[in-house]
C-alpha cells in the first residue's frame, strides 16, 4: 500500500451514495417464504460487526500483550511465534493487541462521525424539503457545493489548524458527511410530503413541525438507516486513511491506519504486517455494507405495495 | 385464431385465473371486462408471455395454431415482435424516456424487417401518420415526455402495429387519458383492426368503453369468465347476476335518473372485491350476489344458447319486458 | 343571500415545480373571475387533467395560498381565517382524496389516523365510543381500528377517509375524485354514502371529477373547468340540457358515447 492508494481511499469519503428512492423498484423479487427469514447479508454483516465490537470491548480490559510494550529484540516476529498470534511489528509490539485496540478507535470514530452527521444532515434535509421553492433551491445549491468539497483537503486543513487527533478526524468526516446525509434525505422527504396523508394532516391543522416529525421522519427512517450503515463503513475507511496520513490520534493510541503506515517500509520483509490490519478494515467495512443492504432488503418499502398489487 | 383452453394462472397457492375456454376469430374484437382481482390483466399478460415471474401458467394458448405456452422467452419475444402486439395503460412507462420517439418506432420496424435506417425512418413517419399523428415529421424528434398522453398512446400503438400483428392486446389503453382524448384512441383501434383484419383483445374495467370498441365481450370475476357473448346482447340482456349488478351499479351509466333528481342513490353491489385467494368456492360472486340459491356453492355450469353463454345458477329472466322497459 | 364561499378575481400560479408535474406539468395558472357556493348545496367541479379543478379546491380549503383576488369563507377572507381562527377554519373545511391508499400514513393504525383530526383541532383524544360512532356512520366496524392501511381494501380505506374528515363535523366537505381509484362495484357504495351523509349532516359538498355524468347525477350545480379557467357554471339541468360552452358539449358527448344506456 502506498500513499497514492490511500488518498484514493480518502476521497471515498464523499463518494456518492447509492441511489435510494421510495418509488420505483427494479424487477420482480423472489417471494419471501412464510417463515420470517432474515436476508443472508444482514446476518453476515451483523456477525462481522458484532465480533468487531466484541473485540473492541475486550481490548478495554484485556489484550494478549501490553499495548505500549516496546521490545526491539523481538521485532518483526512472524505470526505464531512466542505467543504472538499475528507476529510483532518493527518495534516488537504484538500485532494482535494492536489490531484489537485499533478496532476500538475505528468504531468510536465511525460511530461518532456517522451519528453526528446523520442527525445534522437529516435535520438540514428535512428543513430543505419543507422550505419554499426559492429557499429550497438555495439550500440545495449549498449542499451541492458541500458535497463537492474534497474531504481530504478539509481534513488536512483541519489538522493544521486543530492539530492531529481523534476530534480532528471526526470533525473532518462529519463535515464531508453532512451534505451527503442532507442530500439523500431531501428527495424521499419531499416524496412523503407530496402524499395525501400529509395534505390531510395540514388540512386538519397539523403544523409543519408535527408533520415532519410524525409523518415524514418515520417514513424515511429505513432509508436513513441504510445510509447510516454505508456511512459508517465509509467512515471506518476514512479514519484509516486519515490516520495513515498522520491526521489521526498520535501514539500511543492505536489505529489501523497508522499500523499500516508504520509497516509500509517493512512491508516487503513482513507482508503480514499490512495484511492483518488491512483485513480488519475490510471486515468492518464489509460488515457495515452488508448490514446496509440487509436492512434495505428487510425494510423494503415496496414490500407492502407488492402485496397489494398481488391482489390484481 | 386465438384459442385458449383450460388456462390456469397461479401465484403461490392462489389461483388467479381459471378459464376453460376463450376463443377469438381472426379480425374479431373482444372485450375482457372485470374489476380488480378479476384476473383480466393476468389473462392478457399470460397470452403475451408477460406474466410476473412468480406466476405459474398452465393449459393451452394457441395463436394461429401455434402453442404459446411453454415457449422459451426468446421465442416468446419473437412472437411479440411478429404476430402479437401489446399496448399498456400507461404509455409513459412503456416508452423509453431517453430515446427519441422516432427511434423507438424505427427500432420496432427494424426488429422484424431488414430495412435500412433511412427506410425505417420513412416508414416511421408513415406509421405515425397512420395512427393519427398529423405532425409525424416533427414528432419523431421528440422525447416521450414532450408529448401529450394521447400522442404517447398513439406512438405506443404505432410500435405495436409496426410488425403488423394478427392480434393486438390492449390493456386499459385509455384509462389514464382524458375523456375527450379517449374517443380518438378508441376509434383508431377499431379502424386499425378493421383495415388490417387484426384481432383485438381489449382489456378494461369499463363496460361503456368496451361497448364502443368490440363486437363481443367476456365479463370476468374472481378469475372466471362469468358471461361471454355479443356485446349488445350482454349489455342489454345480461344473464349473469354479476353482469347485471355491474351494469346497474355503474355510476351515471346504469338506470337513467329523471331530471332534477340530484342526490339520488345508485344501485350498489354489497361488500367488496375479496383479496386474492379469498374468493368463495363455487360461484365466486357468492356472498355479494343477493340472488343466491343453494346450488351456488357448486361451480356453475356453462349455460345459454349460441354465442351468449354465462355461468350462473340463478340467471336473470331471458330477454323480455323488464329489459325493454329499462332501455326505452 | 351571500354565499358560504365566494371567489372573486382569484388567481394562482404554480412556478415550474419539478417533481409535482405528474399530470403533464410545466408552469400553469388558475384564474377564477367569480364563483359562489351556497350553504348546503352540492357542487360538481368537472374538468380534465390540467384544468385546475384540484388546485381550486385546495385553495378553497386553505392548502394553497391565494396569489391575487379574493376568496372568502363565511364572508371573511380565507387568508384572514388562517391568520386568526385557523383551527376553526380547518374544522369547517375538510377534504377527501382520490387515492385512498395514499391518504393514510402506512405506519399508523387506522385508529390513530382517525383520532388525528380531533387531537389536532380540539386538543383532546377522542373516546373509543366517539370513534366507533364515526366508523358506524360510514358503515364500518371497530375491528378495523387496529389494522394498517395496507390491510384494507380501497373501498374500506375511502370510507375511513370520509369518517376521518367528518369527525370534525365540518360544514364543507371537498371530495377530489373520491371514487375514481375504486372498483366499479364499490364506487356506487361510496357515492351513496357521501349523499346520505350530506343529507344527515347538512353538509355542503364540493365534488371534483373528470366524469360529468357522475357529478351531474349527484350535484345541483356544475362548474366546468378547462385550462385553469371556468368555462361554464349553472344549475346541473340547465348545463346538461343546454350547454352554452362548446367544451361542455364535447364533455357530455364523450361521456354519452361510453354510456351504457
TrEMBL record, chain A:
Transmembrane segments: 42-62, 107-130, 142-162, 168-186, 216-238, 274-299
Family recorded in the similarity comment: Belongs to the binding-protein-dependent transport system permease family.
Domain of life per record: Bacteria
Record localization: Cell membrane
Domain ABC transmembrane type-1 per the UniProt entry, residue ranges: 103-292
Entries under InterPro entries matching the protein: BP-dependent_transpt_permease, MetI-like, MetI-like_sf
Designated name of the protein: ABC transporter permease
Keyword Transport: yes
Membrane topology: Multi-pass membrane protein
UniProt-listed GO biological process terms: transmembrane transport
Native organism taxonomy: Bacteria, Bacillati, Actinomycetota, Actinomycetes, Jiangellales
Polar residues: compositionally biased ranges: 1-10
Pfam families: BPD_transp_1
Region (Disordered): 1-37
Gene3D superfamilies the UniProt entry points to: MetI-like
CDD domains: TM_PBP2
Principal subcellular localisation of the protein: membrane
Any one of the GO CC terms: plasma membrane
Keyword terms of this UniProt record: Cell membrane, Membrane, Transmembrane, Transmembrane helix, Transport
Protein source organism: Jiangella asiatica
TrEMBL record, chain B:
A GO cellular-component term linked to this record: plasma membrane
PROSITE patterns referenced in this protein's UniProt entry, alphabetically: ABC_TRANSPORTER_1, ABC_TRANSPORTER_2
Superkingdom as given in the UniProt entry: Bacteria
Localization terms from the record: Cell membrane
Domain ABC transporter: 2-247
InterPro entries xref list: AAA+_ATPase, ABC_Ni/Peptide_Import, ABC_transporter-like_ATP-bd, ABC_transporter-like_CS, Oligopep_ABC_C, P-loop_NTPase
Protein name: ABC transporter ATP-binding protein
Source organism of this protein record: Jiangella asiatica
GO molecular function: ATP binding; ATP hydrolysis activity
Name of a matching Pfam family: oligo_HPY
Keywords attached to this entry: ATP-binding, Cell membrane, Membrane, Nucleotide-binding, Transport
Gene3D superfamilies on file: P-loop containing nucleotide triphosphate hydrolases
Chief localisation class: membrane
Amino acid at each position: 500500500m502506498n500513499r497514492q492508494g490511500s488518498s484514493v481511499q480518502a476521497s471515498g469519503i464523499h463518494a456518492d451514495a447509492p441511489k435510494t428512492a421510495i418509488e420505483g423498484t427494479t424487477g420482480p423479487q423472489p417471494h419471501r417464504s412464510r417463515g420470517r427469514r432474515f436476508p443472508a447479508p444482514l446476518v453476515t454483516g451483523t456477525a462481522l460487526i458484532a465480533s468487531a465490537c466484541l473485540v473492541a470491548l475486550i481490548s478495554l480490559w484485556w489484550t494478549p500483550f501490553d499495548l505500549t510494550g516496546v521490545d526491539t529484540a523481538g521485532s518483526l516476529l512472524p505470526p505464531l511465534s512466542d505467543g504472538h498470534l499475528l507476529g510483532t511489528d518493527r518495534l516488537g509490539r504484538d500485532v494482535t493487541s494492536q489490531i484489537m485496540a485499533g478496532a476500538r478507535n475505528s468504531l468510536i470514530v465511525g460511530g461518532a462521525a456517522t451519528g453526528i452527521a446523520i442527525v445534522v444532515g437529516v435535520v438540514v434535509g428535512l428543513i430543505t424539503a419543507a422550505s419554499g421553492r426559492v429557499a429550497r433551491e438555495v439550500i440545495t445549491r449549498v449542499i451541492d457545493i458541500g458535497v463537492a468539497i474534497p474531504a481530504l483537503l478539509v481534513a488536512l486543513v483541519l489538522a493544521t489548524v486543530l492539530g492531529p487527533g481523534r476530534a480532528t478526524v471526526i470533525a473532518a468526516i462529519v463535515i464531508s458527511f453532512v451534505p451527503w446525509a442532507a442530500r439523500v434525505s431531501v428527495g424521499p422527504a419531499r416524496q412523503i410530503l407530496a402524499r395525501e396523508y400529509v395534505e390531510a394532516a395540514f388540512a386538519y391543522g397539523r403544523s409543519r413541525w408535527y408533520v415532519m416529525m410524525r409523518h415524514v421522519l418515520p417514513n424515511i427512517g429505513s432509508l436513513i438507516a441504510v445510509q447510516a450503515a454505508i456511512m459508517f463503513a465509509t467512515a471506518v475507511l476514512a479514519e484509516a486513511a486519515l490516520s495513515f496520513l498522520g491526521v489521526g490520534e498520535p501514539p500511543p493510541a492505536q489505529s489501523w491506519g497508522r499500523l499500516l503506515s508504520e509497516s509500509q517500509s517493512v512491508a516487503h520483509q513482513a507482508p503480514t504486517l499490512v495484511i492483518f490490519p488491512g483485513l480488519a478494515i475490510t471486515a468492518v467495512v464489509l460488515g457495515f455494507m452488508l448490514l446496509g443492504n440487509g436492512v434495505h432488503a428487510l425494510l423494503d418499502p415496496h414490500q407492502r405495495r407488492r402485496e397489494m398489487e398481488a391482489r390484481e | 385464431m386465438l384459442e385458449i383452453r383450460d388456462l390456469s394462472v397461479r401465484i403461490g397457492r392462489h389461483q388467479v385465473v381459471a378459464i376453460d375456454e376463450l376463443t377469438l376469430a381472426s379480425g374479431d374484437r373482444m372485450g375482457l371486462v372485470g374489476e380488480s382481482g378479476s384476473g383480466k390483466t393476468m389473462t392478457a399478460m399470460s397470452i403475451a408471455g408477460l406474466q410476473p415471474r412468480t406466476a405459474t401458467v398452465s393449459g393451452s394458448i394457441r395463436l394461429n395454431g401455434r402453442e404459446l405456452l411453454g415457449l422459451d422467452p426468446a421465442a416468446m419475444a419473437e412472437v411479440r415482435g411478429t404476430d402479437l402486439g401489446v399496448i399498456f395503460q400507461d404509455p409513459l412507462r412503456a416508452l423509453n424516456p431517453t430515446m427519441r420517439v422516432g427511434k423507438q418506432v424505427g427500432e420496432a420496424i427494424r426488429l422484424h424487417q431488414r430495412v435500412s435506417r433511412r427506410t425505417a425512418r420513412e416508414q416511421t413517419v408513415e406509421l405515425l401518420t397512420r395512427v393519427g399523428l398529423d405532425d409525424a415529421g416533427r414528432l419523431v424528434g421528440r422525447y416521450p415526455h414532450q408529448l401529450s398522453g394521447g400522442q404517447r398512446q398513439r406512438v405506443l400503438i404505432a410500435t405495436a402495429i409496426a410488425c403488423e400483428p394478427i392480434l393486438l392486446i390492449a390493456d386499459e389503453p385509455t384509462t389514464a387519458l382524458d375523456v375527450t382524448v379517449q374517443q380518438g384512441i378508441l376509434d383508431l383501434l377499431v379502424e386499425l383492426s378493421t383495415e388490417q383484419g387484426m384481432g383485438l383483445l381489449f382489456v378494461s374495467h369499463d363496460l361503456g368503453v368496451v361497448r364502443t370498441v368490440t363486437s363481443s365481450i367476456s365479463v370476468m370475476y374472481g378469475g372466471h369468465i362469468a358471461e361471454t357473448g355479443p356485446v349488445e346482447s350482454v349489455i342489454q340482456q345480461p344473464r349473469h347476476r354479476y353482469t347485471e349488478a355491474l351494469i346497474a351499479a355503474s355510476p351515471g351509466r346504469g338506470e337513467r335518473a329523471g331530471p332534477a333528481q340530484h342526490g339520488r342513490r345508485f344501485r350498489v353491489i354489497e361488500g367488496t372485491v375479496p383479496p386474492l385467494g379469498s374468493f368463495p368456492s363455487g360461484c365466486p360472486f357468492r356472498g355479494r350476489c343477493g340472488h343466491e340459491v343453494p346450488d351456488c356453492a357448486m361451480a356453475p355450469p356453462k349455460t345459454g344458447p349460441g354465442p351468449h353463454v354465462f355461468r350462473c345458477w340463478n340467471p336473470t329472466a331471458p330477454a323480455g319486458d323488464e329489459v325493454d322497459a329499462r332501455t326505452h | 343571500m351571500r354565499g358560504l364561499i365566494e371567489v372573486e378575481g382569484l388567481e394562482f400560479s404554480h412556478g415550474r415545480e419539478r417533481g409535482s408535474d405528474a399530470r403533464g406539468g410545466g408552469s400553469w395558472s388558475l384564474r377564477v373571475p367569480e364563483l359562489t357556493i351556497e350553504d348546503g348545496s352540492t357542487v360538481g367541479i368537472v374538468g380534465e387533467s390540467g384544468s385546475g379543478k384540484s388546485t381550486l379546491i385546495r385553495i378553497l380549503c386553505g392548502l394553497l395560498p391565494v396569489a391575487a383576488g379574493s376568496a372568502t369563507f363565511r364572508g371573511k377572507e380565507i387568508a384572514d381565517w388562517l391568520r386568526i381562527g385557523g383551527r376553526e377554519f380547518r374544522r369547517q373545511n375538510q377534504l377527501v382524496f382520490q387515492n385512498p391508499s395514499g391518504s393514510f400514513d402506512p405506519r399508523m393504525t387506522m385508529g390513530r389516523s382517525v383520532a388525528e383530526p380531533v387531537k389536532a383541532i380540539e386538543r383532546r383524544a377522542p373516546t373509543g365510543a366517539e370513534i366507533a360512532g364515526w366508523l358506524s356512520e360510514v358503515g364500518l366496524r371497530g375491528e378495523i381500528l387496529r389494522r394498517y392501511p395496507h390491510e384494507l381494501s380501497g373501498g374500506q380505506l375511502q370510507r375511513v377517509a370520509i369518517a376521518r374528515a367528518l369527525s370534525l363535523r365540518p360544514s364543507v366537505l371537498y371530495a377530489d375524485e373520491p371514487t375514481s381509484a375504486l372498483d366499479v362495484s364499490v364506487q356506487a357504495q361510496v357515492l351513496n354514502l357521501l349523499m346520505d351523509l350530506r343529507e344527515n349532516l347538512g353538509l355542503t359538498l364540493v365534488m371534483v371529477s373528470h366524469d360529468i355524468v357522475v357529478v351531474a347525477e349527484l350535484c345541483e350545480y356544475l362548474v366546468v373547468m378547462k385550462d385553469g379557467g371556468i368555462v361554464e357554471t349553472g344549475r346541473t339541468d340547465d348545463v346538461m340540457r343546454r350547454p352554452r360552452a362548446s367544451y361542455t358539449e364535447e364533455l357530455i358527448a364523450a361521456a354519452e358515447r361510453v354510456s351504457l344506456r
